[in-house]
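Handout, page 2. Input:
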Amino acid sequence: MNRSKRSLLGLTGLVFLVFGGIVALFSPLGSTWPAFLELGIGVALIVSFLFAGGARSLGGTFAGGIARQRLFESVYIVLVLAILTIANVIVSRHELFRIDVTEAKVYTLAPESDAILQKLEHPLEMRGFFTGGKVENPRLRELLDLMVTASPQVTFQMIDPEKQPTLLEEYGISQANTLHLSYLIGDEPREAKVARTLNEESIINAVKKLLRTDARVVYYVFGHGEPDVNTPERSGYTFLRESIEGESIEVRKLSLASTGAVPSDAAALVAVAPKKPYTEIERAAVDAYLRGGGRAVFLTEPNTPDDLALLVSPLGIEVGRDVVVDELKKMYVPGGGLGVEPLIADYSDHPIVKGFTNAIVLATANSVSIRTTSKDGTLTEFARSSSKSWAERSLEQLFSKAQAARDPGDLAGPVPVAVAFEGSAQGAYPGTRLAVIGDSDFVSNANIPQLFNRDFFLNALNWVLGEERGISVRARSLRGSKKGLTQEEFSQVLLTAGILFPQAIVLTGILVWWRRRSGQ
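Output:
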């Protein structure tokens, strides 16, 4: 093989090696095959060049009189390329400056978010459990990058739950598209999880809870046939317990028959409709807790003992002896069905559901309404069924004959299914916050993943605890419209326009140079 062809082989191989390295370093691709392909071709061409006598050519080249000049020029080019490469690596991995020229500042963290992150005194580790190890939402990916940039204490790790399933159990993750946060203070990190709604508000709220110094305990009343918070059965409450613990709240089981009172360290009480009645002592313990400014979430259930109804009656709340039937739901149930799983999407402007526009689905719910205005506090019906629903009061006909028809004595829709009470300082329940929801099965292991059931319950619990999700985050939207690129689309654009096109130009230049040099 003549010298010009050997030169062409060597230069082409060098180009493929260089661009293969660039692909491996800078291309955010899901697979590494483009880099391996480039490097493989480069290695093959260099090996061919050497076997064709390239080593002897190099020795002869640098032995001549012009060798030092060519060597100097080559070293100069290599140094310039190395400097440019190092500069690009620094700029790509360390944001030196950022200018947000949008009017709404959509590419900047909210001032409160930025202040919280900059005041972090300990490492905050964020782990994203996303299918395929990718964040499909470009806005979320950008938000995570902004948070990492805002503080040297913040780090982010992407985890593919399909490739690393053992980490799901280690961090208590029950669904994909979940962000796990660990705030490392001492030997035991504080942990929180954010799922479904992944935005600046929800993530920063989780960070704020991790920074809280006071430990919070929510007591779950059991001993009367309530669902178990430690069972994986469909009727259990394991997922509910994990969701509450994901808010940096400890969940403890409480036997009122043993203690005779709600513990003094209770941040809130969760009571579910019992299958067996409370004793007088147990009912008195809960009533004393509420009158002492306690915080609680009550989940009632049709056709169960009326202990919770008796406890909330003095507050002006009425738990109906009925079942909400949704005529719209009946239309989509095979064979007509009963439609006793109403879809709820009608909310008030109460803080529990402020800005909450997502639907939930209840399972055999009863009505919960305001019986009378209370001099002891403020009552708000914050969730209602559709206008095509009603509260069926003929329970015997419903449960024994599986029949339901709207009668004049039934409560016409929209039927209220949730009421919030906030006690006034001058009333009999000063400081008390109570949320009563007319269904308990909607947060069972089988139903809590449906629609936004989990978020609805956690909103109620957070309000009861005094966490109104009060962070003020402006709408991150542009004046004009645009379509964001997915990670794969961005990778394709980068590979094609940023790497393959320049490589093709370089190879074309080498080919033209070779043809002219060889006189072809």
